[in-house]
Amino acid sequence: MLQQLFAYLLGIMVTFPLLVTLLLYYLFKKSTGNKKYAVHASMQYSACFYLLSFFVIVDQTFGSSYIGWTIVILLTLLLFFIIIQWKLIGDIIFKRVWQLFLRTIFFLFFIINFLIIIIALLLKLVS
């Protein structure tokens, strides 16, 4: 019973990552009272749900998975952020790099999710 509830909850969170973002924003805003912190924290914590949602939508739409390519691209992006911080500041503060990386993933996959949903709907309408 508890495993099914957890599976359904996780499925809803992956299917509707925007709801997760809004819920996290509301929770962080109520607990801290700081809107800026709430926006940043909700972006960082919901980034993984946008990434998982992207994988599921691409797999269901195109019938193939691009997890390997996506991981390589994301690791390259993380390496790019590390090199930029090293060149600009000199010291690598991994917490700062990780926050920037998660926020970038959020923005990137937020846009990609909407585009891939539109493409998936168009493909379903055409076929």
TrEMBL record:
<feature type="transmembrane region" description="Helical">
    <location>
        <begin position="37"/>
        <end position="58"/>
    </location>
</feature>
<keyword id="KW-1133">Transmembrane helix</keyword>
<feature type="transmembrane region" description="Helical">
    <location>
        <begin position="6"/>
        <end position="28"/>
    </location>
</feature>
<protein>
    <submittedName>
        <fullName>DUF3397 family protein</fullName>
    </submittedName>
</protein>
<keyword id="KW-0472">Membrane</keyword>
<feature type="transmembrane region" description="Helical">
    <location>
        <begin position="100"/>
        <end position="123"/>
    </location>
</feature>
<feature type="transmembrane region" description="Helical">
    <location>
        <begin position="64"/>
        <end position="88"/>
    </location>
</feature>
<dbReference type="Pfam" id="PF11877">
    <property type="entry name" value="DUF3397"/>
</dbReference>
<keyword id="KW-0812">Transmembrane</keyword>
<dbReference type="InterPro" id="IPR024515">
    <property type="entry name" value="DUF3397"/>
</dbReference>
